[in-house]
Amino acid sequence: MCLAVPMRVVTIDEDTAVCEIDGVRREANIMMVDGVEVGDFVLIHAGFAIEKLDEADAEETLELFRQVLADGGGVE
Questions:
Q1: Please, which residues have CB within 8 angstroms of residue 27's CB and are 6 or more apart in sequence?
Q2: Beta-carbon neighbour count of residue 30 at 10 Å?
């Protein structure tokens, strides 16, 4: 199973952004999403930004991920 993770854009250099969440930074290609700016949340999948998110949606998704990880991440 593949997941897309919400991350905040820290820097942008042409079509490449450095994105961060919980102290983890990754480079991502942003060419598929228009209007990405530093500070935006984007959904990252396989090294590509696939969608812009508002901060509330990003935080809600991240909280759900954190809950799953805290519970051991397993499916019963």
A1: 16, 17, 18, 19, 47
A2: 24
Query: How does strand 5-13 pair with strand 24-29?
Result: unpaired
Residues of the chain with pLDDT under 70: 1, 73-76
pTM for the structure as a whole: 0.85
As given in the structure block, the two tokens for residue 14 are 């042409």
Task: State both tokens at 46.
Answer: 């396989």
Pick the CATH number of 5-70 from 3.40.50.300, 3.20.20.30, 1.10.10.10, 2.30.30.140: 2.30.30.140
